[in-house]
Specification:
This protein is an alpha/beta fold and 403 residues long. Helix content is 49%, strand content 8%. The strands form 3 sheets. Strands 6-5-7-8 form a 4-stranded parallel β-sheet, with helices on both faces. Helix 4 packs parallel to helix 5 (120-129) and helix 11 runs antiparallel to helix 15 (346-355).
């Protein structure tokens, strides 16, 4: 590569030959003191057999085994340390920079597993040095990667998904659609997966992850071990999740969309997604995740849910939400008293579902919290849950457990 950077050529044939002779002589002088007995044995044996080796053989470097040519010239630091001794990451960064500098003479670069040996910040710098962010690409680079950090730094127009087929491979450009670019920035792991669950929000991601962990504790193989990934669409209309899922499905991924059922989708959008091979996981009409867990789990599970909520947001805020949704007719104390006497009545369960999901103040509205709720409360309660609720979780299990 250095030869491509400039027209300079080292005309050092005579000097290299002299250096080789000097190296042989210096080695012989040093080796003689360490190999005295060995050399004497060789001399006596040769003399006994009538083989002429002179008065005493010498241990010199073999001119045919060790040659010093232009390939033996190595760059060193100012302290004499060879640059080839740099760490893997530093070497790759330096080579990338030189490759770009030599782009006019060597316009194509191949990089296998681009993340190898590089910390995330150096990987980002490495991609920059190859021109990933340049408006006009300085050279053509073919890269492979297992790193979501690398994917996050690329645009959809730079990403290609390769699929193997029985007759030939197919190469699909990810494209620059907003659905692709948003996934690259927020959930780049999805592009490295086989199967993807596109979730309406963080609650669904946490719920699905938590149940996967619960099933894993029972001996099942994790969805992640099967090559699965989750995508958080960030809320809004279910159309957002379906459009995102369709974009990923068009690139050959196995996709399930997980959304609430309280908002309608645009007519035809779910049908087209299903017809193309996608799956939709949703609750009964009009219900959200919170509605389902408070309406259709056992009384013991609701005890645990209320205790969890009290730990997270406190009884005072819970009571305020319950009073807001009941127009002041019911308090948290009333609900606890009812539980002791006759359990949670259907109207109370409906109220708790509504109170727990007040916008921007939900009792469990985070990925981590819903992961814990699903793993520690919902999972152990599934066997006693409403059959309709179990039908949804069974569909999730079937998707995540497929290899």
């Amino acid at each position: 590569m250095l030869n491509r950077l400039t027209d300079e050529r080292a005309e050092l044939g005579a000097e290299l030959a002299r250096a080789a002779r000097q190296a042989r002589a210096n080695f012989g002088n040093q080796a003689a003191g360490h190999l005295t007995q060995t050399l004497e044995v060789v001399q006596r044996t040769a003399q006994h057999l009538g083989v002429s080796v002179g008065a005493m053989p010498q241990a010199l470097l073999d001119a045919h085994s060790v040659s010093i040519g232009e390939g033996a010239i190595a760059l060193h630091s100012d302290t004499g340390i060879p640059l080839r001794s740099l760490g893997t990451g530093s070497s790759r960064l330096l080579v990338a920079g030189l490759q770009r500098a030599a782009a006019s003479a060597a316009p194509i670069a191949l990089v296998d597993e681009v993340e190898y040996g590089l910390e995330p910040h150096r990987l980002m710098r490495f991609l920059d040095s190859l021109g990933a962010k340049d408006a006009a690409a300085p050279l053509q680079v073919f890269m492979t990667t297992h790193s979501p950090v690398a994917l996050r730094e690329l645009s959809g127009s730079q990403l290609f998904v390769v699929r193997s087929g029985p007759q030939r491979h197919s190469v699909m450009a990810a494209g620059e659609a907003n659905e692709v670019q948003s996934t690259l920035r927020k959930d780049p792991e999805a592009f490295l997966a086989k199967s993807i669950i596109v979730c309406e929000g963080a609650s669904e991601v946490g719920f699905a992850r938590g149940l996967d962990q619960w099933w894993g504790s029972l001996g099942a193989t994790s969805f992640l071990a099967h090559g699965g990934a989750y995508v958080d669409v960030g809320g809004g209309s279910p159309d957002n999740s379906l459009i995102r899922g369709t974009a990923l499905q068009n690139l050959g991924y196995r996709v399930m969309v997980f959304v609430d059922a309280d908002k309608p989708s645009t007519a035809g959008l779910p049908e087209a997604f299903l017809a193309a091979g996608g799956q939709i996981l949703t609750w009964r009409p009009g219900l959200t995740l919170e509605d389902e867990i408070f309406r259709h789990l056992s009384d013991q599970a609701l005890d645990a849910l209320l205790a969890k909520a009290e730990t997270i947001v406190g009884a005072e805020l819970m009571n305020a939400h319950i009073q807001t949704k009941s127009q002041g007719r019911v308090t948290l104390h009333d609900i606890k008293a009812e539980r002791l006497i006759q359990g949670y009545l259907p109207a109370t369960r409906e109220l708790l579902g509504a109170a727990s999901r007040i916008r921007n103040s939900g009792w469990f509205k985070s990925l981590t919290t819903y992961q814990e709720v699903a793993r520690d409360i919902v999972g152990p309660s599934l066997q006693n849950a409403d059959p309709g609720f179990m039908a949804v979780t069974n569909q999730l299990w079937t998707f995540t457990s497929a290899p």
